[in-house]
Write a structure and sequence with these properties.
The complex is a heterodimer of chains A (346) and B (178). With 346 residues, chain A is of the alpha+beta class. Chain A is built from eleven helices and ten strands. Helix content of chain B is 54%, strand content 8%. Chain B has a two-stranded antiparallel ribbon. The longest helix of chain B has 25 residues. The chains are: A alpha+beta (346), B mainly alpha (178). Chain A: One of its GO terms (biological process) is phosphocreatine biosynthetic process. Chain A: This is Protein-arginine kinase.
Chain lengths: 346, 178
């Protein structure tokens, strides 16, 4: 699949990959003197885009492509969103929004989202110190060309008071099937809140998640430096990894046949189904990943199947690859076919 | 699990209500949840903003500055972007970097409530770092110049004065270059 918008992070295996799918850091930056996007009119926003495009032209030499969001069609924008490269908000009101994207280095810069600039890095595995170095460096490069809105009291100034200070949001996407199955998830996620972190379900509604995927991020941005914020997040995540692994062992010891049955059924459905809804496919793929990580599956399946298919089987990705005009029924058929082909070629 | 209301679709919105210790759970599909007046699932952002407005409009108990006792404080308006404090309490969003200076006195309380802290301790922009360094260098040079004047070493004082000007020019150039 050739896709210029696919961030290659999910193709790579990362540290602690049985639990952690990806790590992400996002920095919000605004420019001094310019009104924030929520107070700017379309003309002002477009002037800002032009200004940034010319001042940041060096980005073109370091692997970035520039896009006006309005130059992308709806499916392309959705693909970027499904890849977690841009926010939901950035797919809307596109005439005043732009994007710098560097796929090889997993970097994106959203222009005129809630803040003038939103820098983001997203990488497989549990790798905060490495990705921080990269995004810190990018931030310094931009800093040389631009005058950031900054106060010595409150740090980087942002539209929303919840981002003020470091304006940094660090997060991990983790796969916690055993904590969900054993019912321990609510306790553990509740405890996470006490450390100034927030959790939300990914690929699901509200706090639940079909694929047993959760995103955990720092809530507090003021009063701690970037390293402290990442260290706190890392130490809590490390605990969660340990608890998830403990639960996996416990479940395997006590419910072996039940789990094996569940995993094997999921495998069977994906291998032979001709129609799959997105949530359904994610649910079974999640079980297969669980089966692989706990050696319940003996079949020879690509170890990174879940990460590879996680986005590829989503609606916009299917439309991007197989035709914009696919209706829901045809999408479900296509989704089943993509999965079936991969599982049957092994 | 099927929706409690229509009984047809899979329930994806789960509400828990606790009234006087009585726990009640409601499971709805997205359609019914949207129709239900109890929860508008497109309202996620709005409820966050209204929560924030609640914090912003909270009557701070230790109001010691004239800014707070002034009943017109709601009418404070940022000259750069035109955002009034009242608008800010409704939208929960600042309009520009200048707003922070204009609403200065209210913000420590707000940040304390949101972050539990009121002072930044993270990264600084490079220009800010350079500015601080340049300013401290200028202050030192001014002291040196004063000493030179007191010692009637006017030639040296003039030299130091030129150095100060050079640093200031550099700073300005740096600013204008951006």
């Amino acid at each position: 699949m050739e896709n210029k918008f696919v961030n290659s992070w999910q193709m790579e295996a990362g540290k602690e990959k049985d639990v952690i799918l990806s790590s992400r850091i996002r920095l919000a930056r605004n420019l001094k003197k310019y009104k924030f996007p929520n107070k700017s009119n379309d003309l002002e926003k477009n002037k800002l885009i032009d200004m940034l495009r010319s001042k940041l032209d060096f980005l073109n030499d370091s692997g970035f492509e520039f896009y006006l969001m309005s130059d992308l069609d709806e499916v392309e924008r959705e693909v970027l969103h499904e890849e977690h490269l841009i926010s939901r908000g950035h797919t809307e009101s596109t005439t005043t929004k732009a994007l710098f994207l560097n796929n090889t280095n997993h970097l994106s810069i959203m222009i005129n989202e809630e803040d003038h600039l939103r820098l983001q890095i997203l990488k497989a595995g549990f790798e905060f110190s490495k990705i921080w170095e990269v995004i810190d460096q990018l931030d310094n490069q931009l800093d040389k060309k631009l005058e950031y809105a900054f106060s010595d009291k409150w740090g980087y100034l942002t539209s929303c008071p919840t981002n003020v200070g470091t304006a940094m949001r660090a997060s991990v996407m983790c796969h916690l099937p055993a904590l969900v199955l054993s019912g321990r998830i609510d306790n553990i996620l509740g405890a996470v809140g006490k450390f100034g972190l927030t959790v939300r379900g990914v690929a699901g509604e509200g706090s639940s998640s079909e694929a047993e995927l959760f995103q955990i991020s720092n809530q507090i941005t003021l009063g701690f430096n970037e390293k402290e914020i990442m260290e706190k997040l890392e130490s809590v995540i490390q605990q969660i990894i340990t608890e998830e692994r403990k639960s996996r062992e416990y479940l395997l010891r006590n419910n072996y046949i039940k789990l094996k049955d569940n995993v094997a059924r999921s495998f069977g459905i994906l291998k032979y189904a001709y129609q799959l809804e997105e949530a359904e496919a994610l649910k079974y793929l999640s079980r297969i990943k669980f089966g692989q990580d706990t050696n319940l599956i003996k079949e020879n399946i690509d170890q990174d199947l879940f990460s590879k298919l996680l986005f590829k089987i989503k609606d916009a990705h299917l439309k991007y690859n197989f035709g914009n005009n696919l209706n829901q029924e045809k999408l479900n058929i296509k989704r089943a076919e993509v999965i079936r082909n991969i599982l049957n070629e092994e | 699990m099927l929706c409690d209301r229509c009984g047809e679709n899979e329930a994806s919105v789960h509400l828990t209500r606790i009234i006087n210790g009585q726990k009640e759970e409601i499971h709805l599909c997205e359609d019914c949840a949207r129709k239900s007046s109890k929860l508008n699932s497109d309202d996620n952002n709005l409820s966050f903003q209204s929560l924030l407005s609640g914090i912003l409009n909270h009557n701070f108990s230790n109001q010691d500055s004239s800014f707070f006792s002034n009943k017109n404080s709601e009418k404070v308006i940022c000259p750069n972007c035109g955002l009034s404090y009242q608008e800010f309490t409704q939208s929960g969003l600042f309009g520009c970097g200048e707003c922070f200076k204009v609403f200065d006195k209210k913000l420590d309380d707000l940040f304390k409530r949101i972050h539990g802290n009121t002072r930044h301790s993270g990264k600084y922009p490079l220009s800010f770092k350079q500015k601080i360094e340049a300013e401290s260098e200028i202050n030192q040079l001014k002291i040196d110049m004063q000493t030179a004047v007191e010692n009637e070493d006017f030639e040296r004082a003039a030299k130091i004065r030129d150095e100060i000007h050079a640093i200031k020019d550099d700073m300005e150039e740096e600013q204008n270059g951006k």
